[in-house]
Description:
This protein is low in regular secondary structure. Helix content is 13%, strand content 10%. The chain is built from 1 helix and 2 strands. The chain has one helix at 63-72; strands spanning 5-8, 11-14. It has a two-stranded antiparallel sheet with strand order 1-2. A hairpin with a 2-residue loop joins strand 1 (5-8) and strand 2. The termini are far apart.
Amino acid sequence: MEIPGRIQNGVVVFEGAPSLPEGAAVTVVLPPRKLVVRFAQNQRQVAFPLIDSANPGSVHLTNEMIGEILNEGTALS
């Protein structure tokens, strides 16, 4: 049997007020969340390489460093 419900004030409240016997064992399963894909409204093309270097691959970029470079706009065309 599958009975939909919601959490209200930390308690499971069933929809449709089904009658279950007192002490009935139940299992609550959360449905998987739907994947939400978002796109930036103002998309910009990134110019590669992000950092000019005579030795490609010699600069170790972290996600934070890449974010700073993109926010500054120095590597964008």
